[in-house]
């Protein structure tokens, strides 16, 4: 099977710090693949290289067999590679529904000026509503983004990623800053997306990772030391020593 995404021996240094230092993994179609590792292991740097925001010093990134190592970040979503949006990219003064509509318009490269009301365009609003339903925000469409809780904003970010109609989703800590209830809701949500997308998930919440992942890659000091199933990773002595401790063993 051709991997949706192949990461081969990526290296990226910031001065003397080797943030990624021989990072390799394969993301297969439809799998949820988690990346775990201690703070500073290079997880975010790896995701940013895959998204095209950071250029690797060495190594290769292939998307469905095509070398995209040097492809600009803005051209990657069109191939089907979407990174979940950050909160700062939401428009707080727009409604929840309008935020998704804007993302769809951007994907379709439609131009909207201040004078073009999004609110009357059913060709944007109907699919936007459907994405909101998929992330459990179907009833919040008319609310302003500023009225959403932290967890709901993260759900909206996910809707924006879905609106890009990608086959591969890069999710960088979707549970960050969430309480137990919000994390459980996000876990359920990601579970409902499993199989429809290839998902690369960076997440510190080990309960969520163990519940969701088909496979896990462990990154330590920028290097991928192991890829395996949940059980293989949990029982690996090197991983236990490097990262997990005894609490999740
Ligand atoms: N722009 C940068 N300039 C300098 N050093 C950086 C930069 N980005 C990351 N680093 C360093 O690279 C290393 C890897 O950082 P990175 O944020 O990728 O790790 P991480 O695994 O995502 O960490 P965390 O789990 O804490 O989010 C760290 O030592 C970090 O300080």
TrEMBL record:
<dbReference type="InterPro" id="IPR051120">
    <property type="entry name" value="ABC_AA/LPS_Transport"/>
</dbReference>
<dbReference type="GO" id="GO:0016887">
    <property type="term" value="F:ATP hydrolysis activity"/>
</dbReference>
<dbReference type="InterPro" id="IPR032823">
    <property type="entry name" value="BCA_ABC_TP_C"/>
</dbReference>
<dbReference type="Pfam" id="PF00005">
    <property type="entry name" value="ABC_tran"/>
</dbReference>
<dbReference type="GO" id="GO:0005886">
    <property type="term" value="C:plasma membrane"/>
</dbReference>
<dbReference type="GO" id="GO:0005524">
    <property type="term" value="F:ATP binding"/>
</dbReference>
<dbReference type="Pfam" id="PF12399">
    <property type="entry name" value="BCA_ABC_TP_C"/>
</dbReference>
<keyword id="KW-0813">Transport</keyword>
<keyword id="KW-0547">Nucleotide-binding</keyword>
<dbReference type="InterPro" id="IPR003439">
    <property type="entry name" value="ABC_transporter-like_ATP-bd"/>
</dbReference>
<dbReference type="InterPro" id="IPR027417">
    <property type="entry name" value="P-loop_NTPase"/>
</dbReference>
<keyword id="KW-0067">ATP-binding</keyword>
<feature type="domain" description="ABC transporter">
    <location>
        <begin position="5"/>
        <end position="246"/>
    </location>
</feature>
<protein>
    <submittedName>
        <fullName>Amino acid/amide ABC transporter ATP-binding protein 1, HAAT family</fullName>
    </submittedName>
</protein>
<dbReference type="InterPro" id="IPR003593">
    <property type="entry name" value="AAA+_ATPase"/>
</dbReference>
């Amino acid at each position: 099977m051709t991997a949706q995404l192949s990461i081969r021996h990526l290296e990226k240094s910031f001065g003397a710090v080797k943030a990624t230092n021989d990072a390799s993994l394969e993301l297969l179609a439809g799998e949820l693949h988690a990346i775990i590792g201690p703070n500073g292991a290079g997880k975010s740097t790896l995701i940013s290289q895959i998204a095209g925001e950071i250029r690797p010093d060495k190594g290769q990134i292939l998307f469905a067999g095509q070398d995209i190592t040097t492809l600009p970040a803005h051209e990657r979503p069109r191939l089907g590679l979407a990174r979940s949006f950050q909160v700062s990219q939401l428009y707080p003064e727009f409604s929840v529904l309008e935020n998704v509509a804007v993302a769809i318009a951007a994907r379709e490269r439609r131009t909207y000026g201040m004078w073009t009301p999004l609110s009357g365009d059913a060709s944007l609003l109907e699919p936007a509503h459907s994405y909101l339903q998929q992330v459990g925000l179907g009833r919040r469409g008319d609310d302003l983004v500023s009225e959403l809780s932290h967890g709901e904003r993260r759900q909206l970010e996910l809707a924006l990623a879905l609106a890009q109609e990608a086959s591969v989703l890069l999710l960088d800590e979707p549970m960050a800053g969430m309480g137990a209830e919000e994390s459980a809701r996000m876990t359920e949500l990601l579970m409902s997306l499993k199989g429809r997308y290839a998902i690369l998930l960076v997440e510190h919440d080990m309960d969520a990772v163990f519940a969701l992942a088909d496979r896990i890659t462990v990154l330590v000091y920028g290097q991928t030391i192991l890829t395996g199933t949940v059980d293989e990773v949990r029982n690996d002595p090197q991983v236990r020593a490097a990262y997990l401790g005894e609490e999740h063993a």
